[in-house]
């Protein structure tokens, strides 16, 4: 829907990739979501140097740089982005939602 509104042509791979990954105005893009997380991470509960939060911030910065790269990723680039997203999600889950690790805030 967003693509059709912006581009009055048949879908092109480069434009679709840009819309999905690096478009900062598209709320469904990875870069938009990473930008929100980057702004909101300062409000996450807990000490800023406790547990996995330092690594979570590092991973978030790395993801932001990958998504804002103007060159469209190739197949290995997509694999790297997907792996980084999985690692990021796993760290968030482990830090905030794991009941087997004791959290002291």
Could you characterize what this model shows?
The chain is mainly α. It has one domain (2-97). Helix content is 61%, strand content 0%. It has 5 helices and no strands. The chain has helices at residues 2-6, 13-22, 30-40, 53-67, 75-97. Helix 3 packs antiparallel against helix 4. The chain is elongated, with a radius of gyration of 16 Å. The mean pLDDT is 83.
Walk me through the topology:
Elements: H1 2-6, H2 13-22, H3 30-40, H4 53-67, H5 75-97
Helix pairs in contact: 3-4, 4-5
Tell me what portion of residues adopts beta-strand conformation. under 5%
From the spread of the alpha carbons, the general shape counts as elongated
Mean pLDDT: 83
Reported for the largest beta sheet, the result is: none
**Percent range of helical residues:** 55-70%
Terminal-residue CA separation: 43 Å
How many E strands?
A: 0
Structural class: mainly alpha
How many domains? The number is 1
Radius of gyration: 16 Å
Q: What is the count of DSSP helices, taking H or I runs of 4+ residues? A: 5
Task: Name a few traits of the molecule.
mainly alpha
Task: Summarize, please.
This protein has 105 residues and is mainly alpha-helical. It contains five helices and no strands.
